[in-house]
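Re: that chain you flagged

S.,

Sorry for the slow reply, it's been a week of failed gels. I finally had a moment to sit down with the sequence you sent. For the record, here it is as I used it:
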Amino acid sequence: METLTVFILCGGKSTRMQSEKGLVLFQEKPFIEHIIQAILPITKNITLITNTKEYDYLDYEKIPDIILDKGPLGGIYTALSHSETEFNLILSCDIPLISTELLSELISKHNEEALITVFASESRLHPLIGIYSKKVLPVIKSAIDNDDLKMMNLIANVPHQIITIEESENFHLTNINSADELNDLNINLS
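Prediction finished late last night. Pasting the structure tokens below so you have them in one place:
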């Protein structure tokens, strides 16, 4: 695959976490820093999609949402609108266990015929750890215009690729949405 841009979606209301999710501390470091650490061996071409100044301490480009309050779909729309590469790695800001190995697997197994490539196990799909082509922009814009913001609908409506993972690998792709989930994660790792 030619060059790849990575966008981390740092939007979201964070209502269950009660604070900016990407800045929640895990093992004494904000989630966002764990994610960046996993990306850096692959590329330094990282951009944060955020509407807050709280990430300004990080030395990466930050872009606000073009269309507000449209959830992850709005963040992906903003990312792809600004991207200069056809393929883009889109990640949510709440996956502190993501690894370079898993990201490398996603990239190496991506088939360029697919406009979206994501991981899935038998029990769940991970739409916010995926490769998205700029070619899906018109489909996303149409979905936003029709207020059809479900990620599963987007994926179902375009040529896509699912990379199957074992149930046990879901653990490393888990997004942490609440203090209880963070507490469970810390217990599972101790």
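What I noticed first: The two ends are 38 Å apart (CA to CA).

Talk soon,
D.
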